[in-house]
Structures
1.
Amino acid sequence: MQRTIRAVAGGLIAVLVLLWGTVWLAREAPNSAVGVAVRGVAGLFGGAAAPSAGIAVPGGVQIGGPFHLVDDQGRAVTDASYRGRWMLVYFGYTTCPDVCPTELQTMVAALDKLGPEAASVVPLFVTVDPERDTPSVLAGYVKLFDPRVVGLTGTPEQIAEAARAYRVYYAKATPKGSSTYLMDHSSFVYLMDPQGRFSALFGQGSSADDLASGIQERLSQKS
């Protein structure tokens, strides 16, 4: 019986990971069968992802790429602006009620655990709500966590470009009876190497120790 349960669980995990790799399709056809399925998977990951020191990504799934955004000081930046440093990237939004602040706190705590080596890592918080998250709003938000965190925003088209590159799902969601909206979004922390290449993926619920050890391992491999 236990062997059967393990086999079924392993199969489900494999299917979920592969479906996650197609999240970007939801942006092009949100009302299609694929779009609906992807939103469901994203919700599962966003709400109950197991802690991980690094999630394995299916072969052939490319993560990361060029982006053109604006930082929290109003300066135009691209992915090339951070060459020579590791990028720790998280997509969220400033009015996120729980997940985003928790993940940012975890990122900052992980950097603290790295000590002097944290100087080679730049933590980036990319908004999925550019309508409300202007540079000044982001500046006030990220400084609540740590002065090292850089907030990034842009036009809706620029945010969509960055989200597609990182396979990020996001969509407006208006609760019944509410006059304002929330943002549904996937919740992963991405580690990119100094050349801008994907290095590691951490799921929601990863601890600061998970992040720190995962980052340390990659830094050691590159040294």
2.
Amino acid sequence: MGIITRVTERARVYRTDAIVLRRSDLGEADRVLTLFTPQHGKLRAVAKGARRPGSRKAGHLEPFTLVNLLLARGRELDIITQAEAVRTFPQVRADLLRLSLAAYVAELTDRFGIQESDSHGLFQLAADTLDRLDREAVPDVALRYFQVRLLDLAGFRPELFRCVSCSNAAQPVDQFFSLSEGGLLCPNCGPQREEALPLSLSALKILRHTQRSSYEQAARPKLSPGVAQEVDGLLESYLSYVLERKLNVPGFVRQVRRLKEARVYS
């Protein structure tokens, strides 16, 4: 997915690709958007008149859209003067589960994104993940891969091969995981830590495989519902610990899954 960026630090007008993370209303007709860009990281900008009927920009600035923007620097917020959607990810918008997973990606990108920072790696990862959520038959793997790679990019890669307490190599048995130390605790060290989370050997194998594999390789294993739930829960807990705050979207994702399992929607 190509990235078009023409900008100098002092340019009054600049063009950039961006992912729309979220939006809020401003006044009677405007919108404020939180955007994630490859060269500027996270930024907030205003789309004047975007809520007016017939606005040309409105349809290009929906959340979870990859868009190409022309912006003018403002005193407080930059101003979006042109917007053209590059990818709208229609399957994400047509399915509630995919939409909830995209919202999860957006929340994590928002939380880990840094303003005025070169963010090409995270931008490309987020854009690729939205594309995978849009086209994969089973979208859960795309989110899991995103979470593991995000931890790598942010400098919080979990230790999955040695005990972080005694440094012994992990044996092929059930283990524990320390949120505070970011890695495995062996069966001897784990029970001594109140904050240690149990980690089954099956879940550990999936985490290791995802950590060291390409996306295509990571997508091959078929997970049982129990293992998938354990892996997803551990990643959520670790990400929340790193961010020092509870994530909002995972609860919504679980609610959507329950509705899907109950066949409230297909």
3.
Amino acid sequence: MPRLISIQVSLPRVFDAPEKPWRTGFFKEPVPGPVVVTRTGIVGDGQADLVNHGGPDKAVLAYSAEHYPEWRAELNLPEMPHGAFGENLTISELTEAEVCIGDVWKAGEVVFEVSQPRQPCWKLARRWNIRTLPARVIETSRSGWYLRVLQEGELAVSTEFILEHRPNPNWTIARASDVLYHRKDDRELSRELAFVRELSMNWREALLQRTG
């Protein structure tokens, strides 16, 4: 049974850097919970870039705990902690090959709906000083996924994730990412994915732009 391994939150902070200071909420810190999950995210968490992050479609970021052994070995970072990819929730026994767009997952009091794959940005590269890391995330499909909050409530570490509804079993997170990044000329697939009702608005708009 999938289970919540860790919870991470952080409010935006300013970090010094040789080139120039930068403000980000990427450096998530573990909390044991319980935390309060609302329609717009976890209380105590925040984003610096509210144009590209946050909002109801991207209220909470989830990431697979199963990826960490691979990343630690590949990047030679044996102490890489959960939350290293900026996620709020690190979940066991789920990967992008198994989670689907529109999945409804119940975790304790909270009910989540999967809205889109996570698109890695430059902040991931800057956090770990590995310029190629976002591209490697895309290449390996170890992206993580965003969650809407359908029912608010408290959430704590070790809570089980129970699948309640799967309306789009053909649209895994991995397949959706493949269409966005690697099948840009496939208008038919782009249109099919764009009309998945539960897909986030920004992904729908990006896909429809391809179809003319």
4.
Amino acid sequence: MTQATTAAEAGGIRRGQLLAILIVTTGVGILAMNMVLPSLPTMAREFDATYGAVQYVLTMFLFAQAFGQLVYGSLSDRFGRRPVMIVGLVIFVAGSLINAFAWNLPMLLIGRVIQGAGGCCGLVLGRAILRDLFDRDKSASMLAFVTMSMVVAPMVGPALGGLFQETVGWRAGMLLLVVTGAAVLVLVFLRLPETHLNRGESSGFTHLLRAAGHLLSNPLFLFYCGIMAFTSATFFAFLGGAPYITIELMGRGPGEFGLWAMTMAVGYIAGNYVTGRYATALGTRRMMRLGTVIGVIGGIIVVGFAVYGPAVPLALFAPMMIVTFSNGLVMASAVSSAVSVRPDLAGAAAGLSGTIQIGTGAVTTILVGAMHDGTSLPTTAMVLLAAALALVCFLAASRYPDPTDAPIH
């Protein structure tokens, strides 16, 4: 009897139901991340702050996600995935409640930190759970289908946030996250089985440092993390500047921005679909090679349209779909590869790689804000730079033998 079968039978849950739980636990954190984007210009006016200052509503959330993943992954190796997931969701609900009643920008930022720290639990533990149950290539394929399905969150998030902003306000959106988070918490408490059946004896900060030391001393792990980080940075760079470009420079409303933001998810869905269909047959490295090359091509087109194209949303979002398509090709394979370098430390690897990935995204949003010059060029140039760095990391990783990778003929 396999570990996957044991876990499923112990919890009385089928694989499809388990994947559904992973979708909603991961999706709620993503929904919280980008639901606020259409409201950033309004928040700047409400709190009498600059757009650069309000942009920290996204940045602080990302930093909290980055460091939260590091803790969750390591703790789940010791205590199991299920109890750590429950604690994370409780934290998420508390942070969402603070956000709904924040009376100034500092209080909102505090709430976003708590919300981000809690909301990332599904992101990191979902990866670890899939790696508990499946081998490397199969987990990449399964993860691709999960991320393709949960892409409903980034599709719905900006559109829903724009709708709230234009009707009852962004605080009502935060209350919706409180209710949603509580519902997901109940679902996890009642239905999620434990999948990590061979937990270690060590725990706490010492275990965290020891696991991180093993992983950070492995060059292949670092290059896989680099692929993840810079691929994601293309998306976060765009998120950092797109609301200002669309709403302030192009004069479109928050609701329209939300609808245009949904187009990015179309490319990501397509890329994940290709990965889900072909990752097992072609191998993870081939998928990453194809995705990073397409990402650079897409980045060049994005910059070209920013410089020479018309100042309309289509010229901004259509080429970005190429980049998000490349993200879909790369991310599942890069995640699966990173957590497979040391399968015995899958939770810590998922957490540490997620920390590097989201932390890089947070730094990217800061850089976009610092380079803000009232045009779309800083945002689009950062997209291209991040895509190029992802390709560099892949080329470096490909120089190392990878015994866990599928043969490439």
